[in-house]
Amino acid sequence: xxxxxxxxxxxxxxxxxxxxxxxIQEQLPGLKYTILEARDAxxxxxxxxxxxxxxxxxxxxxxxFPFRPWKLHNAIAExxxxxxxxxxxxxxxxxxxxxxxxxxxxxxEWSSKRQKWxxxxxxxxxxxxxxxxxxxxxxxxxxxxKNPLSANIPGISxxxxxxxxxxxxxxxxxxxxxxxxxxxxxATAVTILPNIAKQTPHVTMLQRSPTYxxxxxxxxxxNRTLRIILPSSIAYRLIRLRFVMLAYLSFTxxxxxxxxxxxxxxxxxxxxxxxxxxMDPNFNPRYNPWDQRLCVSPSGDFYAAIRHGRAQVVTGEIxxxxxxxxxxxxxTELDADxxxxxxxxxxxVAGGAKVSVDGTPIDISERFVYRHAMLNDVPNAxxxxxxxxxxxxxxxxxxxxxMCRLINFMRGKGYASATPRVGDKGMQRKALxxxxxxxxxxxxxxxxxxxxxxxxxxxxxxxxDLWEAKRSDFxxxxxxxxxxxxxVEEERGQRDSVLIEKVAA
Length: 505
What we know:
25 strands, FAD/NAD(P)-binding domain, 13 helices, five-stranded parallel β-sheet
């Protein structure tokens, strides 16, 4: 069995894994690291999903890397462009040379005596590897790549047509002129509808309840002006900062004044839908904006598909799926050749790896998250978790800054391990991802929790979180020294010497 040793192992070669690799090279240049990726390519989400129109639902100016600006003018981009950007970034900084593909971490076991993690890895499906490392960065995202969230759809097994989950979209699927029903109203459904409507005029989005869909321009006068009058390096920084602030201000205002937010979004939708279109029930959500994540429609493409008569939205509950249609409880019958079940993702942490500390299995769902990164009572490991109300990458980059600063601090002090300890035994749990989306609620028994304590709070505002990542104290961390490890190694060496002498005698 092959054995490898590193200072840091990054698990996942998606956007957060590439970001982590860059920060390690930038801030910890003397340390040896590798990136393990279970799949056979860079990209994570953007390489996995292949459904029509797969794109970001955050602007690329903030979703992209802060150290390599997104220079295309379109704020929202489809997966091929995002993948190209990620590959070019990894190649430019030599991060791709640190990647090992088809390497799945099955188990991660911490030893307090050795102050090391031992990772059991399956490489190329049938080879076993053991990897020793001081630190593990879990850049695996938050959902299960193999198993989507299954929805209870009455009679779905009766359907004689094709049933597809967007997570496993057949690349050779011919849906031209087919009658398609998309079940769901989240970002995936909102993305698929206008793109399928280009090939067939018979697309229906069937939703149990409506969502907020905001039309977003791909570019605007302010961005164009900044690019014209300023050097590119300054212009792209200002554009990025502008999008950070716009996201924060809109989220804050919408939460503070939900009725105003409802009216604003409704007014925009009415202006983009056909004249005299009835907003209720299809575009009148029962919840306030940002109780669930807002869906983005680049240049209003979702509304355009409805306006041009190529798509429709139907709100209702499914009574039964028949061999050729979906029957709703109000008697409506929706004929279908293809049913797309865009019903959400199954949540997963640490890529499904089994984690243990000194032989004791760790139930991650029972843990608190310290400084948006580490888990209580779990040494030298962190989860890269982003934002739900702005770009995911922003949160992951602040975590990378924090962990690199912590490791530098530990090296300066001669510490071998850092373990978060909950000082306040009465600390209350808070949601790590503060959304009421169906898939988030369904995964409530999977995710760890934020807490009411000062250092355990959920993410708030990116610029504040970044300041904390670069400046905050290391309170409630318990450190183990390198000297203790050396003493253990010396003791082990002495025992081995005695054993050798006895055998020789």
